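Hi everyone, sorry if this is the wrong subforum. Our group has a chain we'd like a structural model of before ordering constructs, and none of us has done structure prediction before. Sequence below.
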Amino acid sequence: MFKKSLVLVLGLLLVFSFASVVKAEGRIAVVFATGGLGDKSFNDSGYEGLLMAKEAFGIEYDYAEPSAITDFETYLNQFSATRRYDLIISIGFDQADALNKIAARFPDQKYAIVDTVVDQPNVASFVYEEKERGFLLGVAAALMTTRTNDPKINPEKVIGVIGGMEIPLIEANIAGYIAGAKYIDPEVEVLYAYVGDWADPAKGKELTLSQIERGADIIWGAAGRSGLGVIMAAEEQDCYAIGADSDQGHLAPEHVLTNGMKFVNNTVFLVIEQVLNDTFEGDTHVLGVKEGGLGYSKNLLPEDIINKLEEVEELMKNKEIDIPDTIKK
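Answer:
Right subforum, don't worry. Here is the predicted structure as tokens:
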């Protein structure tokens, strides 16, 4: 009897030990934004965060690439119903409604969403100070468009930005971009337009060509996959593009001036780490330049412009610059 009990106890210890190992490794599910992987931007950065977590913690993961907003609830429900995931991550603001419903339906499941807020106790919401990123890029673009020794720069003081959707998140980026440019030179004109879609590079290119015709020599594509059209147009017309979210310099090495970096990879890694360390909090987490959530890449930026951006970053971290998050019309 004692031997049987000992075997049973040892067996249970092995089960508990195995369960702990599985928990430590973690199993994660991700529902990406429409546009899917290969956008060289938002989704790809999120996927990079998954790979970082796999490398660091040995996690296993599954993911879905919805083709339409109506698919979000279906995928989130399917992942949740299996009850096998330590964390389910929604990438993108337009999953808010679907996640709000699903999180209420599965209160014991942990969720995270990137780029918006879902007010549920089991959801960690990660949002960004978008205006800060826009401001830095506006500073860089304004400094660059006034240079006279670069063949890609014309005599006009005109820069542009192409947004994906006309929503508060993108407006904050554009408002910051305009403010950053005016901070450097009030005479710089900033053109802006919206694609109305995250996955329409052709429309992104068309709008960019229109801005180039109006004198813009630096255009930021804050538009997901649609922003690829901005880079294509800049390369064809021999001017500069600014990439978004990830470093898109490899797409046109001589024409991507810099990138407005949104470190979705770091955010995904962070929330996975919090779940595995049992420090997950269902709350709103705001990430800006100071928190390492936003920034820029150096790429083709001249050294003097980088130095100025570093000065501005310090002012922003100390809250010494007031940046609007809406466009003054």
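For your construct planning: The chain is about 45% helix and 20% strand. The two ends are 83 Å apart (CA to CA).
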